Task: structure prediction
Amino acid sequence: MEGHAGDESWGDSNKVEWHGLGITDPIKKVEDKWLLLPAFLKVKGLVKQHIDSFNYFVDVDIKNILRANNKVTSDVDPRFWLKYTDIHVGFPDRTDADAIDKSVTPHECRLRDTTYSAPILVTIQYTRGKNVVRRSNVNIGRLPIMLRSNKCVLTGRTESQLAHMSECPLDPGGYFVVKGTEKVILVQEQLSKNRIIVETDTVKGVVQASCTSSTHGGLKSKTYITTKKGKIYLRHNSIHEDVPIAVALKALGIQSDKEILLLTAGDSEAYVNAFAPNLEDAARLGVFTRHQALDWIGTRVKVNRRVVGPRRPAWEEALEALATIVLAHVPVAGMDFRSKAIFVATMTRRVLMAMNDEKMVDDRDYVGNKRLELAGQLLALLFEDLFKTFNTNLKSSIDKVLKKPSRTNEFDAWNTMQFQGDHITAGFVRAISTGNWSLKRFRMERAGVTHVLSRLSFISALGMMTRISSQFEKTRKVSGPRALQPSQWGMLCPSDTPEGEACGLVKNLALMTHITTDAEEEPIVKVAFMLSVEDICQATGTEMYASGTFVVQVNGTIIGLTRFPTRFVHNFRRLRRAGRVSEFVSIYINHHHRTVNIACDGGRICRPMIIVDGGKSSVTEHHTELLKQGLLEFDDFLRKGLVEYLDVNEENDSYIALYEPDIVPTTTHLEIEPFTLLGAVAGLIPYPHHNQSPRNTYQCAMGKQAIGAIGYNQFNRIDTLLYLSVYPQLPMVKTKTIELVGYDKLPAGQNATVAVMSYSGYDIEDALILNKASLDRGYGRCQVLRKNMTLIRKYPNGTYDRLADAPLDENGQIQKKYDIIQLDGLAGVGERVDPGDVYVHKQTPSNANDNSFSGPAASAPYKNAPMTYKSPVAGYIDKVMISDTDNDQTLIKVLVRQTRRPELGDKFSSRHGQKGVCGLIVNQEDMPFNDQGIVPDTIMNPHGFPSRMTVGKMIELLSGKVCVYSSVEDMSRILIEHGFSYAGKDMLTSGITGEPLEAYVYFGPIYYQGASREGGLRLGEMERDCLIGYGATQLLLERLMISSDKFELNACQTCGLLGYRGWCAYCKSSKSVAQLTVPYAAKLLFQELMAMNVVPRLILDDA
Amino acid sequence: MTTTSEYNPRLHVGLLEELVTNVSSTDFPGHYPDEDHSWDLSKFKKKLQVKVQKLSARSIEFDLVGVDASIANALRRILIAEVPTIAIEYVYVWNNTSVMVDEVFSHRLGLIPLNVDPALLEMKASPSDQATDRNTIVFKLEIECTRNTAAPRDSKDPAVLYNNSEVLAGHLQWIPQGEQADVFIAHPPAPTVPGTVLVKLRPGQAIEMEMHAVKGLGKDHAKFSPVATASYRLLPHIILDEANPVPPHLATRFRDCFSPGVINVDPTTKKVSVDERGVRGETVSREVLRHPDLAGFVKLARVRDHFIFNVESEGPYEPQRLPLEAIRVMREKISALKAAAEALRAQGEPDGDVQMAET
Result:
């Protein structure tokens, strides 16, 4: 290039740099890289974590649990044994004994109030007499099956096949159908297990490192290394007293003080000084050897008194406690305590570091320190508990049989198994339907784990699947756990959280998040050793804390050392990108602790990112082109090493560019698409980046209440309450998320033409004005479908309920209230039900509970038990279903429909957290109109804008107006081309005076959602005060007592205490007992006061 | 036309960048001292002009010049709300196995525009009135979807696969009642647009219902409104500043700030002028006011008493008949008001206050 004059000028122009690019550089922007998002959502994302976790449980974890509990023996017959060799979960089937077609669909379960479950089948080997018998496919119970999991009949079906099963193809799955109700196991957020967390209490001046150990099948326990008066102790629940750290380490086999000092303080002067008193402590206690230390601890261990066996010496107790209970997750192989000792030493060192530098404490709220627990893990815990109980029960019943001295035939344990009852089935059903996970065995007591899937709208159902609930108490007034964490970026939605008490504790996953499942640890450790990691057991403190040496940890357990951390991490990542280790294994360097951390445990939040290599995005135009053509899938991008998953910890060890032009030489990754930082619900908001952030949060709460389409199967569903929009519309202004989650196929709202102006004064406080003609034409119309259900029961005494036709009155006429009852005793479909009408004419035998009745069932006397329509508004019979439940009772469900048109007081909301009620309905001719004769559907008061700052809504209006003509490029230009003002403001003419309005009016379409719900207005404390001030006593009396909790009270005029039925128990007299009317709350207050030894005496007077 | 080239607050509505000025008329007695503005029929006759500008099968554009906004607005309001039409009001459902529920389907039936001349029918005085052949037209819908056995195997199109896959407005059958067969012989009652899709059916679904159409007013329900749109706008008026003409280099930019055909630019001299015929096409987007270098050359206005009406008929009326119907209704209203006023005057003393009747 040198010497050419012409090239010089080119060289100069190259110097003009924009984001590090010269003009002659190729424009390297990868268009359409966002297409990776739909490709990702096809294989992972949103609901996939639930399904993946359930699949993992059913395919892998359940086998691990079986392996851990695979033997049943007898205390009576030592020769007897029963062994489980295999377990698998079948496909959902029908439990009805006489069914010919055993196949079942989730929708049938919803309608019939049954559980969508599949049998758990085991293979067993056991002794029968002298033979060993093997039996396969032995049913031990039924497991509710998650919809769309790999055991579900819906998986892998085409749209038309799904349609045959009455299932909506857009339904995300990931929930269970238990007793006919759809139940979701919410994602639970927890602090990560097996990791050291260092905290300080600045008030008490305590520094403490804690670690919750959790192993498969083992107990959970928490170990603390804590400071007390400047000295360091080990604390654990199973030891009565805090153990001085030197004693603990000596008991773990580090006997020399020098070694203890090296492993904890290293050669750092400050740490040595801080640690030294602890060594003196041990000496003062007279603990010098390991045996002495064990003895010291042994006398303080809480021993589970065993009934049998001799009492063991103290040191043995201590050894067992240290090996199995304290820090149980650190393996102790062959009584080699070295790694556990190093772990304790490391914890101690972390305490020393935090004492020395207060910045070295950990943040509990950091998302990298969190683990998410999903349905699979919770079910695994539940199953393990149930299975253990099952085995105990099995053992005791086997013992019972074997105890019998003489038996007619050979004992077959299989027969006993058949009579074990449905302990496992019932256990699952109970836990999922109540949401109470109370497992005594694992000391777990959790309520509210499951929730009913909200079917208020498609989005509410979807939003529920991405919800994360926290284990923090809602009442605690700490802001930390509720605050937005910077590490939440891209993983958890910053907008979607409820308001009020659960604010910030309930979170939602972002669009591209994935939650890992457990991966095997062993191969990863092997890989680490192969990549030149030195085993920790060979190391002393000198090496561990030598400069340039990094400690390698796998899932929090210290495995070794490396002197070349960067190279090690780089090589490890290369192996991961090449697919040699699972893509969900994360590795990162912690420079503060000088560690390399590898994690492969389940529950970590991660998301995919484009790998940047040598300052260039590895995903190129070429790749996106192939993606568009469908030749590449997301997994191919992973396999080719173009994209990788980063968990929160690794993400924070990376340098990620948001946009491609931002890439600099040190950049390691590139975001796939910035909008994926929002979740599915927040993704519906158009222009969310123009709104004040709380508005987006409000919208996330409101979008879920919007009435719209619920699913393609909405007309086949019989839900307790279902709201449907008659004419839902696709929004004019869509986001990419809307298309990705399927909101464009199941929308909830309508595009209303809005004029932003004040009108009539009935639009104050966010009220909206609606155009009557728009309502006449179907705007905002909705249907309300309500389920009514009854059982036609059979009673133990042989009698049964029956349906009867309409009775005749004395004139031989059918009464008005029975006029829709047909000959089968049910109302005809399509009939109108007026208030008071009977729609199921059921009759019950009056002696149903009389077990002495023995006559023919039909001869029993019957009384009417009709189902009467109670709503004040007439409805129509939409559907009548007759079926039977799994315990053979006839089930009748009647769906009653009401069609409603918007009226005053109905709630409407745009997509920007701007809700308002309808304040006035105006005739079309009274509405203002523009030059083209367009009349608005809605008038919104402009006072809604300044304080709310929802600029996104204004832009939505503008781009909606443009979209009427063409797609959005340059909004204002297109508006001008079509003869509108560039600002979106039109000249309107008043419909009342006929004269032009003196101001131009912002005018265009905005997507409005309706959320009409029968809500009352609360007469609150402040309102009450107003009425008191005004003196409206009768109104207060009526509102707060007569219409509320009126109660007739007996009070004694002599003693002033409460009486009962005209008798004063104190005065033993009925002479002066008076009756008075008070609110029940007042009576309750008196009684509660009395319970607290306070006597309230009423002084009565004639008013 | 009453336009002048100067902005006259008495005649013009001024359009500023963020404000509309002089929206109300001021030509009433007492507004201007020493001027007589009392209403005068001959003056009114002279000023009043009506001219049809465009007429098509479904719409009409006409100018109404020389009336007050209240009169023009009354016309518009009556067109929307008070010119009667016929629409389906009662639906008797015998069978409906379609996916659409009865209420929604009935609502859709109600919205179908019918071609029945309202003059031929009486209005029911109250909803409880007996239905007769003078006030009710009966339609029947009997339709069932079946499989088309002749359809090609690989076809995916429902219209080919099934018979009656869509229920159209044209499927409504008129059932003549009483004398209706003779009265409506020339124009059998039917929907104006037979191709309107009401609902889609699939094999096995059937609909059987009877409908009663009655005469009604748009103020009762939008389905009785005879128009899709009835609105007006004021004639745009663009005032170029004679003293300060648009310089030639800005001429094309200036022209592009208006709707096409509104501003003429002389090809040689680049002199800017307003096209008197094209000015009615101006949408008044006020684009010119947005550019500081162009805003000074022009004033935007609209002529206050020049109403450009646009009426789209969606019912039985030919568009040109609609304004006349509206005026007829207006005259009826006026005469009713007049009669009431006269009755009031007859009963009370001429100069005393009129007592309101106690109810």
